[in-house]
Structures are given as C-alpha cells and as structure tokens.
Amino acid sequence: MQEPTHSAGQTMKRPGALREALINLAILLLLVGVAIAAHLAGQGFTVTLATKVAILALAGVGLNLALGYGGMISFGHAAFFGIGGYVTGILASHAADGTPVFTLPFTVMGSNDMLGIWPMAMLVAGAAAGLIGALSLRTKGVYFIMVTLAFAQMIFYFALSWSRYGGEDGLSFYVRNNFPGMNTFDPIQYFAICAGLLALALLLTAMVTQSRYGLALQAVRQNSLRAAAVGIRPYAIRLTAFVLSGMLTGLAGSLYADLNRFVSPAMLSWHMSGEIMVLVILGGVGRLCGPVAGAAIFILLEHLLGGVSEYWQALLGLLLLVIVLFSPGGLIGILTGRARHG
Question: How confident is the model over 267-280, as pLDDT tens digits?
C-alpha cells in the first residue's frame, strides 16, 4: 500500500524539476546567445559584460554550494575570490619580470599559463578555506557569519599593507595570461573560456549534490542532529563543502583578475562578499542556475542604472527586499513556481 503513495509523490515532483531544468538550460543558452550576438554585431563591450556575468556566476556557484546546499551563511567568500586573484596577479607579474616568486625551500617561478595558474589559485584558496572553515565551523549561526567575516577582513588588511604587491594601489599585469590554442585578448574567446568553466562548475555541482555525499550535506543542512544520529558526521561533511566552495570561488577570482589584468584589496573586501551573496539570493539560493540568473540581473542593473545615478544600488536593495519577502526561491523560484529547493 506504500508504493502507490511514493509513486504519486514522484509524479508530483517531476514536472517541477523538469521545468526548472529547462529554465536552467534556457538561462545558459541566453547568456551564450547574448555574447555571440554581441560579437557578431561588433559590440565587444557587451561581450565583456557577458564575461563578467559568467565569472561572478562562477563565484556564486561556489558560494551556493556552501550557502544553498550546506546552509553555511559565509560572509567571507571574498577572501577566496581575492586570493585566487592575487595568486594570478603575483604569478603573472613575476613571469613578466623573469624573477622567482620565492626560492626557499624550493624555487617557484612566475607563470602566464592559465592551465598552470588555475590549479595554483584553487589550491591556495582551498587551503585558506580549509583553515578558515576548520575554525569557523566550530561555531553556529551569527557567530559563524562573524568569524568568516573576521577572517576575510584580516586577509583584506594584510593585502592593503602588502607593499611588495602594490598595497592599497593594487597590482597590475599588462598581458592577459595564455590558454593553449586560443587568443585570450579576443573578448569572445575569453568569454568562451569563462563560460566553459562555468558550465563545468555547474556540472560538478549537479553531480556533487545528487551524490550520496550531496544528499548527506543537505541532510545536515536540514537537521544536523538527526543526521548525526544516523551516522553522518556534520563537521566533516560541512568542511568538505566549504573547501570545495572556496576552490570554485578562487577560480572565479583568477578569471576576474585576468579579465581586468589587475588585482586590488577591493576583491577581498566585505563589499565583494556581499555582492556574491546578493546575486545568489536574487537568482535563488540552492538552485543550480540561481547564481547565473542573479549575476545577470546584477550586471544588467549595474550597467543600465549605473550611468543614470550613482545611487542605483538603492533600487538593487529594493529588489532584494521584494525577493526576500515575497519570493524566497529567487528568480528561479518565480519562474518554476517552486518556492524552495529540495
């Protein structure tokens, strides 16, 4: 007698999930379509805006793994974003000078190869996430938020006083790093690199969240005590998600540094943490393509309204207020009619 009830539940759930999958695909195709159309029309600036959407969406995908699926409200993800950027800037500037980054206990030379820089940026950001997460996850609620913010601010002030790499003036590197077989100075080709990495990150997120580990992570988010009672270790599960989240955000920071060929302490500030969190909330917390939709709205508002008034963020705040009060599922929730994710 139990089987028909379960099947009915599955039948009720499938149409909504299918609709959300189609909407996710439409959002990604729209992003790619806008970039290609702008390229064909000779509007390089619009291609660059689409590239910025892809990069910020990638940072949002990283945060979404911790926030949406793990329930960890981190207000310090700018630390990983900025670390990824600084790793890229430091390696690129030393490659330009022909000097080593450091010589003890072994020599590390600079690099302008993206395939070498990305793993380094992800590893350093992941190591920082492991350290910050190991300490922060011993707290809960508002204390977790404040501890992650405190660590990010410590790294921000360190970068601010790190005169060797520009201090508060930031660090410029005038040549964008190389990717085999592609001209990274061509806006549409650099967009293709960023969009490809975003697609891989979304695929990775989908695989992780549908795996046994991902189900355990969501169980911990819903009720850590019950999860622990059935043998799941919440601390290890959350810490793993936090590190993965930091690595993805660090990769986004590396791409952002290459986009601007410049890094500065602003990438590490709490404003950046707030921006990444806002775009995730706008698109839909815990929705696969929520960060992509949120990043597109954010960049669109910034571009359309930024030239009209310097107070455009007031409208962004109003929109955020409406989303939080009337549509907790964000834009994806409105389009699918599903207020909450699974």
Answer: 999 999 999 999 99
What is each CA distance from 293 to 73, 95, 251, in whole angstroms? 20, 36, 19
The two three-digit tokens of residue 267, written as one number: 């990438």
Instruction: Give the pLDDT score at 11.
Output: 47
Give dist(CA 185, CA 196) in Å, integer: 17
Task: Give the pLDDT confidence of 132-147 residue by residue, as tens digits.
Answer: 999 999 998 899 999 9
User: How far apart are alpha carbons 315 and 305 in whole angstroms?
Assistant: 9
Q: Where are the beta strands (DSSP E) in the chain?
A: 100-102, 108-109, 171-172, 262-263
Q: Please report the pLDDT score of residue 161 as a whole number.
A: 94
Look up tokens 């993805």; give the residue. 248
Nearest Cα neighbor of 133 from 85, 41, 66 is: 66
Q: Which residues pair with 109 in a beta bridge?
A: 100
For the entire predicted model, the pTM comes to 0.92
Angle, vertex CA 180, rays to CA 174 and CA 182, nearest 5 = 70
* 84, 249 Cβ separation under 8 angstroms: yes
pLDDT band at 322 (very low <50, low <70, confident <90, very high): confident
How distant, in Å, are the alpha carbons of 7, 45, 296, 324 from that of 333? Answer: 24, 31, 16, 11
Q: Which pLDDT score, from 0 to 100, does residue 13 have?
A: 55
